[in-house]
Amino acid sequence: MSTLYKIYMGIAVASTALFGACKTEYPDLPYAEIETFTIEDANGDPLQAVIKEDEIIIYWTPLEDEPETIRPVITLSERASISPASGEAVPYNAATAYIVTAQDGSRKTYTLRPEGGQPIPYLKTGLATEIYINNSFSIAGDYFLPDTDRTKVYLLADEQEYELREFNTLTNAVINLSIPITTELDTGYYEVKVVTGRYTLTAKERIHLNAPNLSTLLDRTKLPSNLSPGQTFSVYFTQEEALKFYQEEDFTARMEYSDNTPVRNFDPKVRFISATEVQVTIPKDIVAESAWFTLRVGNRTVIQQQMTIE
After folding, report:
1. In whole angstroms, what is the distance from residue 127 CA to residue 56 CA?
2. What letter would DSSP give residue 300?
3. Where in the chain is the domain with CATH 2.60.40.10?
4. Can you tell which superkingdom this protein's organism belongs to (predicted)?
């Protein structure tokens, strides 16, 4: 082997060793961060979450229904991976968690924090508790969803639930409903429940549901203006359902005179003739002169009208 060849071989071996010693090996990256997390809002527009420490905070579209699931588009730190994967459907609730794994194997867990588009609603105290069938009542509060498909009102008694459907007013702060005379509800005490969006509220006060006010259902066009002692006359009502609440009630009557004649209280001997008619009898010994005739049931006035007894 020539001396020149040995010199070349020596240079080649030295160069290989030199370049091999200069090669750098980089460590695996330790970054396990969610950089962006984007979903579609209620209108189909991009909605970007706020990433705060280990939480993914989403502020949903105000007063819009929240989704049951979402498919987020997620970007991560370089060379990191995530489970569940970007684009995969996940439940839209606080139980959903993401695990991000860095290139070096270290992990970080993120949890979803939905901040509802509907602020937490509440009921104001002071609900009117004496409510009448064939009338309306109001529920005051705030942050109700003003949509009858998403806000429902129920009355609860004896483990049964009755939905009220006749809304007169529904705003963010007031619900006003009617209880029609055709209702299947009976008189008595009820709890009030409001379901609005994903929230269920129960009023602190129970309501007392009373029979309809007969005076508002009286057919005054058929009332007589002149009566005779001992006469029986008919009283008519405009709704067939009106009298069904009064079958067991006690009626009382009185005549009040404008002069010094004493007030006369008496039993009107009310008889139920039909769904819209009752009969009332005037005593035979009633004083024959002009008087105010009052017919009451319980503590409520049904008729108060001036009549002439002759």
Report:
1. 39
2. E
3. 122-210, 214-309
4. Bacteria
Q: Which two tokens stand for residue 219?
A: 């057919």
Read off the pLDDT of residues 108-138 as tens digits, 9 standing for 90 and up: 999 999 987 778 899 998 888 999 999 999 9
Strand bridging mode 226-227 / 300-309? parallel
Q: What is the DSSP string of 84-121?
A: SPTT--EESSTT-EEEEE-TTS-EEEEEEEEE-SSPPP
- Looking at residue 121, its amino acid is P
Q: Which CATH architecture has domain 214-309?
A: Sandwich (2.60)
Rounded Cα distance, 134 and 177, in Å: 10
Residue reference for tokens 């609730």: 93
Q: Which amino acid is at 141?
A: G
| Structure confidence by residue, pLDDT tens digits, 28-85 | 999 999 999 999 988 899 999 999 999 999 988 877 778 999 999 999 999 999 999 9
Contact 268, 252 (CB under 8 A): yes
Q: What is the rounded CA–CA span in Å between residue 183 and residue 177?
A: 13
> Could you identify the residue written with the tokens 């001997």?
269
* Pairing, β 34-40 against β 73-76: antiparallel
